[in-house]
Predict the 3D structure of the following.
Amino acid sequence: MSVLVIGGDKITRLQSLLVTLGATKMHHWDSRRNSTSHKELPQNTDMVIMMIDFLKHNSMDHFKRQAKKSNIPFLCVKGMSGCSECQIRQMVEGIQEKKCNASICKRNCT
């Protein structure tokens, strides 16, 4: 699973959570430069997480529109509280379940 994290400076806690949940590829854009606001989402991105504490409104709107247009699930979280971790876990599990239901994975799902 490929995840794009937008916003935030230090995302080590989030990275370790995502690796635990099966993320194999991660991109992180800190969004400090204005040029970040005009980037296109990387191809083959399975999920976008926006750290809203550290993200400008225009940037968030831009990436939210791109994610919706590309049918990529996105999540806006504030910090890495226990609630944020729970939201991320639920989203990742939902993505994995959809892939499995679409017969993409080879595991025996019940």
Summary: The first strand starts at residue 2 and ends at 6. The chain has one domain: 2-101. Helices lie at 12-20, 57-69, 82-101. Strands lie at 2-6, 25-29, 47-51, 74-77.
